[in-house]
Amino acid sequence: MVVGTHRATKLLIDRQAIRHNIKQQQKKLTPDTALFAVVKANAYGHGLVAVAQTALEAGAKGFCVAILDEGLALRQAGLTQPILVLGITDPEQAHVAAENDISLTVGSLEWFTAYQKLPQSKQPLKVHLALDTGMGRIGFRETPELKQALAVVRTAAFDFEGVFTHFATADEQDDHYFMQQFHKWEMLTKIIDPLPRYVHVSNSATGMWHTNIAGNMVRMGISLYGQNPSGDVLQPSLALQPAISLVSKIDFVKPLHAGECVSYGATYRAEQDEWIGTIPLGYADGYPRAMQGFHVLVNGQFCEVVGRVCMDQMMIRLPHELPIGTDVTIFGRQGDQQITVTQIADYVGTINYEILTGLAPRLDRQYLN
Ligand SMILES: *Cc1c(COP(=O)(O)O)cnc(C)c1O
């Protein structure tokens, strides 16, 4: 993987914003509730290890990742806090988790059976049982199978560390389905006695809009990065600060005459004489190809993206001739103006999560504060 450290296009990540967002969430938690920073997918594009370290400074007690390799990368970076893999890990690889003190999610009896057939690792495997209360993704769904799982997970090969569920609609106005899931959760967890160390139901949206929900651990993802989990649907109940911005510099400037076109497909034609700037950034960096017609910030002014975004370059219409090297903000703040990741997501019909996790590895990530 090549990282572009010799180009003007880069991601700026404000560590202070991450610390601020975590502290905002902590204010809403009881003192016995552990905040786990969800740092899967390269910390939502912000950089796995840098974000994990920043989260610790702000009081995070552990980490959630999607896949075992992300957990191993945290261990290799010297982090010793609890790590939970939220997805299903192949039983054949589970010994690697046990050897590295990484906790795994288990959501089926078949998984336990497969694991028990393998040579046992010396260390007990730390396990969180996933309960599927309506997300329909992974987890135990009925009391009888959960009872059997409890009998297994309480044997010596395992350290029964947690139980959790995940809500499908915590970011919506209508809480009907949310309450249905919550009641299923209460029904299933009734039979778990004693409860394990960590009982958790809260992603960002639940931690923000359903704060009276039980549990002693929260899995804080998108809000840690200062992004609203609902896009713009619900107002955040925390004063979030977006941590990431994408900046570049104009590297080519030219006058375009009325009738002349820009970029592949010649889908943009100048109606009058105008100035066009080129920016060294494209869809290979994670800025969607379909952003034609949207805008970026130059000198605190919105400038339209003209023509199709190319793989590595894109063009904007300038208010007048500007020097090469002029700063451009693709998202983030510039002067009094701001472009949010959610606005970009809305423009192409997706969610802020997808834009963030699509930010390419080749973008240099620079950390402030
Ligand atoms: C990704 C994920 C989270 C974090 O979700 P956010 O909406 O980003 O807070 C929490 N729990 C589970 C199970 C997840 O997969």
From TrEMBL:
Top-level taxon in the UniProt lineage: Bacteria
Record has RNA-binding as a keyword: no
EC number(s) given by UniProt: 5.1.1.1
GO terms for MF: alanine racemase activity; pyridoxal phosphate binding
Sites where the protein binds substrate: R137, M311
Pathway where it operates: Amino-acid biosynthesis; D-alanine biosynthesis; D-alanine from L-alanine: step 1/1
Keyword Isomerase: yes
Cellular component annotations (GO), alphabetically ordered: cytosol
N6-(pyridoxal phosphate)lysine modification, residue list: K40
Catalytic activity, reaction form: L-alanine = D-alanine
Residue ranges constituting the Alanine racemase C-terminal domain according to the UniProt record: 243-368
GO BP terms: D-alanine biosynthetic process; peptidoglycan biosynthetic process
Keyword annotations of the record: Isomerase, Pyridoxal phosphate
Membrane-spanning residues: none
Annotated function: Catalyzes the interconversion of L-alanine and D-alanine. May also act on other amino acids.
Family: Belongs to the alanine racemase family.
Protein name from the UniProt record: Alanine racemase
UniProt source species: Paucilactobacillus vaccinostercus DSM 20634
